[in-house]
Amino acid sequence: MVDIIGGGILGLSLAYELLKRDVPVRVWERAATPGGLMGRTRFPELNGLECDRYYHAILSSDRALMGLFDELGLRGRLRFTATRMGFYHNGNIYPMSTPLEFLRFPPLRLIDRLRLAYTILACRRIKDWRQLEQIPVAEWLTRLSGERAVRNVWAPLLRAKFDGDYSHVPATYIWSRLVRTTDTRTKGGSQELMCYLPNGYQELIDALVTAIRQRGGQITLNATINTIQIDDGSVTAVVVNGQTVPADNVVITAQTPIARRLLPPAAAQVSERWGQLDGFLGIVCMLLVLRRRLTPYYTLNITDERIPFTGVIETTNLIDPQCVGGYHLVYLPKYVAADSPFARMPDDELRTVFLNYLRQMFPDLRDDEIAAIRIGRERYVEPIHPVGATDLIPPITTGIRGLFLANTGQIYPQLTNGESVYTFARSVAGHIQPLLVRDLSVAVLSLS
């Protein structure tokens, strides 16, 4: 038996993959619903409208996810859409979806545009990412794209993504991002194909929960893990809601700072090892439910560093608005360091600040066109992998018999998304199966 701590998409995927290997599992989730960051938010004031709490893309190139959708009977539910991207620069919006639009981007000279195109091609030719892991991303991009392209395109995007400080970010970040997104292009590169499930990632969550239970797996919600008991170098139990539950194999899928809090003094050395690389950016995200379309773009990138949010993500330029009651969904995300004033800003103040900047971008947006607003906050979202820190990534095994760690901080150099998370879960299942304490339960513990 394996006890899995965490009922997010990683914990559920891991449970499913272990059950496919005939390993019994129990999943423990602290929240009242499974899914973690990929769960839903509800609007009682809009006749119970539900939508994804945060935006999550499924790309046409997500091969592992497509295989999972086949297994769960979801492939036929997928709908494909050609999406567009734009840039907000110096108070103007420029389309950047096609090669021709790219070549017309005003802030760049022809040589800059050609070098930017060369950067994308160079990324796709690199197979060994380890050569990039030791190079700061700004240095590498300047070498390929030139100083002007970095100043007008890359630097603003990196500042927004990493809350102002990207000096520690390795070149693998851009490499991984460009390789994944350029795989979505149609033949000739004229369109970017993305896809979605009509009821969002909740359809995948529900299908995984059903498959786990049909195979005999247990999922317990509202389950707070107090600690993991370790005796003589082996896992012996988990303490759930104050009750001791015997256990022999535990996989913690919670983010590393949370995972460390679950360890007893007997695992002090493991906690110290995990603490060598446990940095995460958080996120604040304002979701607007609008009565009309705001832009024609799925992603509107922002180069104006005075604007606090990372971009304008209008997901109803991907999903059919009829899937969300005919409304239009706009997400305004901002990744935040722990000491960021936006991380501590009260919801009312954050709402006012974000709306003021959004109206600077779109002066014609009226109050009566905003049907509802939600503010989402998460402390641990984006793992931080500094230059040259690959060897500090915690291993899955711990040196304690029956104790394993499997979280998004170990996914590298791929970025954190549904494709990489499921691929990682599948590899973890194969890795730990031969190491499990036999004839005993394995619990997968999940924390939101």
Summarize the structure.
The chain is of the alpha/beta class and 448 residues long. It folds into three domains: 166 residues, 3-Layer(bba) Sandwich (FAD/NAD(P)-binding domain), CATH 3.50.50.60; 150 residues, Alpha-Beta Complex (Polyamine Oxidase, Chain A, domain 2); 93 residues, protoporphyrinogen ix oxidase, domain 3 (Orthogonal Bundle).
Number of domains: 3
How many strands appear in the DSSP assignment? 21
What is the SS-derived class?
alpha/beta
Task: Count the DSSP helices.
Answer: 13
Query: For this structure, what is the CATH homologous superfamily of the largest domain?
Result: FAD/NAD(P)-binding domain
Ends apart, CA distance between termini: 22 Å
Mean pLDDT reading: 93
Radius of gyration: 22 Å
In helices, the fraction of residues equals 25-40%
Give the strand line-up of the largest sheet: 8-7-16-17-18-15-19
CATH class of the largest domain: Alpha Beta
Return residue spans where pLDDT drops below 50 for at least 5 consecutive residues: 439-448
Please report which band the strand proportion falls in: under 5%, 5-15%, 15-25%, 25-35%, 35-45% or over 45%.
Answer: 25-35%
Question: Could you describe the 3D structure shown?
Answer:
With 448 residues, this protein is an alpha/beta fold. The chain is 31% helix and 25% strand. The protein is built from 13 helices and 21 strands. Strands 8-7-16-17-18-15-19 form a 7-stranded mixed beta sheet, sandwiched between helices. A 5-stranded parallel beta sheet has the order 20-14-1-2-21, covered by helices on one side. A hairpin with a 5-residue loop joins strand 3 (40-43) and strand 4 (49-52). Helix 1 (9-20) packs parallel to helix 8 (202-214) and helix 5 runs antiparallel to helix 6 (147-161).
